Amino acid sequence: MTVAHPIPTAWLTAGATGAQNYDEFADDAEITEIIAANPSSALAIEMPHRAPGSLGKSFAESLPDAVVRLTQAKDAGAYRRSDDVVVLYRISGPVPDPSRISDADGSTAYGLWCMVDTDQISTSAEEPGLVIRNEDVFLEKVRERVALFQALGHLLSPVLLLQTGRGDELHAALADAAAQAGSPFATDVDPAGRTHAIWPLAAGPLADSLRELAGGGELVVADGNHRSLAAQSGGLDRFLAVVTTPASVAIQPYNRLVHQLDAPIEELLERLEKSGAQVAPGTATVPAQGGTVHLYADGRAFAVTLPRDPHGSVIDNIDHALVERVLFGDVLGLEPGDKRITYVGGDYPASWLTEEVDAGRSALAVLIAPVTVDDFVEVNLARQKMPRKSTWFTPKARGGLVVAQVA
Length: 407
Description:
This protein is of the alpha+beta class and 407 residues long. The chain has helices at 28-37, 43-46, 59-75, 139-152, 167-180, 205-214, 225-233, 265-274, 319-331, 350-358, 373-381; strands spanning 4-5, 7-13, 79-92, 109-117, 121-122, 131-132, 154-155, 159-163, 186-189, 195-202, 219-223, 238-244, 250-252, 255-258, 278-281, 293-297, 300-305, 341-344, 364-367, 392-394, 402-405.
């Protein structure tokens, strides 16, 4: 029995539609610039209100534009139809800049595009299911994803799932299948220089064996918490997924910018100390390990050890939870979804965040050590809930490579 199924009607890229996922950006203007430079990118469909031709409209008002763009792309041959397939996926790339905490060391990542049963999503130990989602979400983003797939009748970005039970077997099988597959059906190169390659696999022994491995054990949502909840909220029986392996991914830092402070940094530090935090001079870098977060404001850096809850669980006392509860909630009086907070994924180095502060576009940078893959899997298998925006998995599955028609 497997929860991984073929895609009944898939639209596969002809090579020019690949896109970063809609939530990979710290700056909305960057989305518009990318769409302007790459008008065939699926990003113009995923974020229709950020496309140059739709600026000034709300997300809802821009949905008809998204429908037109997808229809035009299909009519122009940007996508090619393939029925009842799973899709073999390989991501390979150059060795990254060693000065950055990064995902790849020149290794290759593998995955399988497929449809996964929505009723298998479990958000607590009391809720049965093989797909584990345990990260808080922003409901407005979920509503946008529902509205988009209901307007389009298609899913353009997958949920990234980690196969925890048979990950090593799946990794070996995907690597062998890719080695035997010949030239890819299509390739796409992302901004980091990684090459994304796909091969559609029709029903048969190979596709069936890969589906059995992909859906034969517990799957943890690594990326796409909002998309998976949108599938549930929108009544989809199955959602588009890439099932990958722990050996294929790493977790980079997930930092924060605060655009406005209600007091000078000195007062903020005093509040932190009164709350029980320890404050010392620091560096404007991502901490090498958890336990201390680095703050940067007014050209100065501070190392802050936030007070832990002696009665809390392990997950209550990880750095991301402490930042959310102590720094944002108790000290700054901000809810996690406050528009004054920007969540900045690991594709943006610490230097980018400090430059935003130095330029006056933000008041405070919060630099947090990344969660490890092993810790992430352990927390999820224990059905504990991760704080929102605490894991930035890389490499990410590229949107717009495999599109699933759902209506």
